[in-house]
Amino acid sequence: MSKVQGNTGAPSVEALESLPLRERQVVELVYSLHEATATQIQQCLEVDLSNSAIRAMLARLEEKGVLQHRIDGQRYLYQAVVPKQEVRTSALKRLVGTFFDDSPASAASALLGMSGKLSNEELDQLEAMIAKAREDGR
Asked: Model pTM?
């Protein structure tokens, strides 16, 4: 059985947002892969960094409390500390605030405009969310 190791003090979303670009790219990869080894991260990054440079960056991210790891045989599997949903909500609020003047309707309109044809199921989901927002007085 593997034990999760690393700094277990949960960082704030703001700490994630203030990371340098390369560290933020690594964390985003870990989020998209759910957990990852240094080798997987090295293969996915669009820049040429050595495996030891990746491992050093992962160690720094653990020290900052952003990532933690578990040992699986001889591999270290890294995972994010802050839940993905929490980070997603914060990132979306920042995006809507920055690019859509704090207007969720403008952001939704832009998203709908860039998507291809929506399925009936997706349209039903959107209609249900709008109905719930109306019920909740939002």
From this structure: 0.70
